[in-house]
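Sequence design from tokenized structure. All designs in this work follow the same two-part layout: the structure record, then the generated sequence. An example of the structure record is given first.
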């Protein structure tokens, strides 16, 4: 009983006031627990050709916008042949009418004319649903990706970011 007699109740705190909430702690509580990532490309080499698995096209497009880089997108799901692939890339990347529609011309359009047109901020390229058909077999797919690897090397030599993401159908 004596313990209860020695107990002194704490005076009531005015509504809205908190003795333990300092202005510094209040400011910390207004901040998100996780800081938003600067870009989904954080940690991705600046000149690379890789699978798109870990990324969404929309996020890559947003990243290109945030970084002030060119965003080139081609959906190749309806392509059956090498010619279809080249036609679709040329159309969706808006290549000039004189595009030769072969792998050498593809490389040329991805490199030299762009370089000669002035300073470039960088590139994020997406090749979605590269076909796997008898007329566009594994060798053709590797040749296509090699063109983009060579383009990445070209831009790397000029210290310009070039990231290419791809998926297979």
């Amino acid at each position: 009983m004596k313990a209860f007699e020695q107990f002194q109740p704490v005076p009531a705190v005015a509504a809205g006031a908190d003795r333990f909430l300092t202005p510094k702690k209040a400011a910390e509580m207004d901040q998100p627990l996780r800081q938003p990532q600067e870009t989904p490309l954080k940690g991705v080499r600046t000149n690379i050709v890789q699978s798109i698995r870990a990324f969404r096209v929309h996020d890559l497009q947003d990243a290109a916008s945030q970084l002030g880089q060119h965003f080139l997108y081609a959906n190749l799901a309806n392509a059956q042949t090498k010619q279809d692939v080249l036609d679709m890339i040329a159309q969706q990347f808006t290549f000039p009418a004189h595009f030769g529609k072969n792998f050498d011309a593809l490389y040329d359009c991805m490199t030299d004319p762009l370089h000669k047109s002035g300073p470039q901020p960088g590139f994020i390229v997406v090749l979605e649903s590269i076909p796997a058909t008898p007329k566009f077999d594994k060798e053709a797919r590797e040749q296509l990706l090699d063109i983009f690897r060579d383009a990445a090397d070209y831009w790397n030599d000029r210290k310009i970011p070039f990231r290419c993401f791809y998926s297979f159908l």
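The domain at 50-168 is CATH 3.30.370.10 (Barnase; Chain D). We note this feature because it recurs in several other targets discussed in the main text.
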